[in-house]
Amino acid sequence: MSLALAFESSCDETGVALVRGGREVLIAPLYSQVGEHRPYGGVVPEYASRAHLEKFTPLLSEILRTHRLRPGEIDYVAVTVRPGLVGALLVGYQSALAAARYFKAPLIGVHHLEAHLAAVRLSGHEMPYHALGLLLSGGNSAIYRLRAPGVIEVVGVTRDDAAGEALDKGAQALGMGYPGGPLIEKAAYLFSSQNGIKPGEEELTRRQNIFPVIMKDSPQQSVEFSFSGLKTALLTYRQKFAEADVAEISFFYQERIIEHIIRNTRRAVLANKGMPLIAAGGVLANSRLRQALAKLAEELNFALIIPELKYCTDNAAMVAAAAELYFEKQILSPFNAVSSEHGFA
Ligand code: KG4
Fold first, then answer.
1. If you measure from the C-alpha of residue 287 to the centroid of ligand 1, how many angstroms do you get, rounded to a whole number?
2. Residues with Cβ < 8 Å from 229, sequence gap 6 or more?
3. pTM of the model
4. Cys-Cys link to 276, which of 196, 210, 235, 303 (CB 3.0-4.6 A)?
5. Distance 2 CA to ligand 1 centre (A)
6. Is the CB of residue 3 less than 8 Å from the CB of residue 74?
7. Among 137, 176, 251, 309, which is best to mutate for testing ligand 1, by the most ligand atoms less than 8 A from CB?
8. Which residues of the chain have pLDDT under 70?
């Protein structure tokens, strides 16, 4: 069975992993740069590149301390090459290239969004083709149709911000800190439990949400995302009602985001009947969202596959999971040049 060494550095997580057969994670040390970026309320690209530069060597040493690998013992090296912060990607690419030369192994460039979806393989699932992929992270929000490795069609993307970005910026506007997703989730949960409000779409129609429905009048078939209007609504509300309860704002803000995601997912599933849905990306750490997706899957009767939580956020094991799809067929991925582009072609 193949043995892969994988590198991830598209944004603010530095990861290296040793993975067998694209499924079995032997070791996957990961360094999260969240602490470095927290004072700025978001990822600072140049700081991200510098932190990757500092962290790859110790992470790789951690692997080599426990697994004494010699040249010829690695079947391939995998690395994220797009999309992402270009400086950060270049650091990962150069590190992976050096490892590939040392181990005398081929280098497979991986598309970051395909890697997020391939993360399901790390928990024993086959990569389903003719499937939908819902990807929600700090930098991307989209629904894809998966046909084959690298053959991935866009069903709908965001016009502006990503879902995670909306949560991060919303939390920043509320003075909560960074990253915003988990902070908003916690505050929203507190509000709903203290006030006996059960989150859910029915509840929102009964009780007046302080924020408008996102893209309320979009055509029935539209699967486009948009989060920047909601962010503006939050800023305006905050300016008008400076004393308003942050937990209450968090609750209604999160509810509108989830409602929008569920509405688009519903539309995509109905237009692609019978296809399973992979849901991945850091925002899937949100338990209210996972619940809402599970409810939708039950209602519309489709298979919902969510990677293990630790593989939902950026990590290197998922990079090997995707690269293996190419290695199995002895195809070196078409994504060999570092790029900020999202496109699959
Ligand atoms: O996939 P990811 O690690 O990659 C990017 O850096 O894009 O996703 C990070 C995003 C952040 O925007 C963060 O706020 C969000 O995932 N996130 C969450 C939760 N945990 C992380 N969003 C909602 N609820 C959470 N519990």
1. 12
2. 212, 214, 215
3. 0.93
4. 303
5. 31
6. yes
7. 137
8. 201-207, 333-334, 345
**What is the reported pLDDT for 205?**
57
**Which atom of ligand 1 sits closest to the CA of residue 287?**
26
CA 217 to CA 344: how far, in whole Å? 30
Q: pLDDT tens across 32-49, in order? A: 999 999 999 889 999 999
* pLDDT the model gives residue 339: 86
Query: Residue 225's pLDDT is what?
Result: 97
How far is 126 from 279, CA to CA, in rounded Å? 14
Q: Crossing angle of helices 163-173/228-240, nearest 10°? A: 10
* Contacts of 156 by beta carbon, 8 Å cutoff, 6+ apart: 142, 143, 222, 223, 224, 225, 264, 268
pLDDT of residue 17: 98
Q: Enumerate residues 6+ apart whose C-beta is below 8 A from 138.
A: 11, 43, 162, 164, 165, 168, 179, 282, 283
Would you say 307 and 119 are in contact if contact means Cβ atoms under 8 Å apart? yes
